[in-house]
Amino acid sequence: MKILVTGGLGFIGSHTVVELQNEGFEVVIIDNLSNSTENVLNGIIAITGRQPIFEKLDLREKASVQDFFKKYSDVSGVIHFAASKAVGESVENPLLYYENNLNPLIYILQELQQKDKANFIFSSSCTVYGQAEKMPITENAPIQPANSPYGNTKQIGEEIIEDVAKVSNITAVLLRYFNPIGAHPSAEIGELPNGVPQNLVPFITQTGIGLRKELSVFGADYPTSDGTCIRDYIHVVDLAKAHVVALKRLIESKNESKVETFNIGSGTGSTVLEVINSFEKVSGQKLPYKLVDRREGDVIEAFADTEKANAILGWKAESTLDEAVESAWKWEKKIRS
Ligand code: WQD
What we know:
Elements: E1 2-6, H1 11-22, E2 26-31, H2 40-48, E3 53-56, H3 62-71, E4 75-80, H4 87-92, H5 94-113, E5 118-125, H6 149-166, E6 170-177, E7 179-181, H7 200-208, E8 215-218, E9 230-231, E10 233-235, H8 236-251, E11 259-264, E12 270-271, H9 272-283, E13 289-292, H10 307-313, H11 321-336
Parallel strand pairs: 1-2, 1-4, 2-3, 4-5, 5-6, 6-11, 7-10, 8-13
Antiparallel strand pairs: 9-12
Helix pairs in contact: 1-2, 1-8, 3-5, 5-6, 7-9, 7-11, 9-11
Bound molecules: UDP-4-deoxy-4-formamido-beta-L-arabinopyranose (WQD).
């Protein structure tokens, strides 16, 4: 059974391709290499021994998307990762985000609308909840007005899928990720941030390896146990596995509604200082850091209630924070060796 994975050479996409292949799926990757490299293919093959089909394609070109689905009319499901994801960049360049995160989604859905049955998994984000009132966050938590164009594209994307599913044979699962971190235990694939990492864990590992002088902790005066923000850091392999179970649910038509939504996190909140402590524990080295002002737009606290994914998908994150941080560190050392 052939599955299209857009953005399949990216961080979460590549780990999901591995888990799909482990479950016997044939994978076709579309990637425009804007935030990944073709070498990631070798990493995937090194792990699974299987070569995914790779099509270098810019999904912003409608004709390219149409040609793809003519060539691969036997695609049974689509996992759509391809999107820009830097919150700060989206504020500076909103049209880049609206074009790149929405047009490809629309073009793909247009192609799927003609199919007799289409299984679609959308890469969404806990950012749609903004600063949720209640912790842990359930799927029923209100959707807050987005505080960035990036977050807005996730909200609009979800709404587009809901609307199209009502009038087509598309069945969809929206996976709202919390904070994906870490790397495949083999260290054959992992995160490859472009330039200065915006996210915490890659910045920590680059500081640990000496690429960065010190970590700036954005705010230590929050109303939390140690004053720093709380997030739900989930191992990227656990996140990848959630996509496979969600896809199987759609293919086996076990879904109870046209569109189902799941929060995908570890279910545990960790402060920034706790992540630093985790790194120091697993690496055996001190991490240079300084406490600085808060970062604009950061929420104080966000961690997932994963009860629904546990009960309905039969999925639960298995890795601990230390295991995820250790895998990120192992990957950092591998790519810098
Ligand atoms: C985590 C915590 C920072 C860097 C974003 C997107 C989300 C998803 C994941 C795409 C915060 C602190 C960070 C640093 C720091 N993106 N931090 N120093 O902001 O929770 O989520 O990335 O899917 O949609 O919103 O993740 O890793 O940037 O920050 O102190 O150098 O680490 O303030 O509290 P975030 P993050």
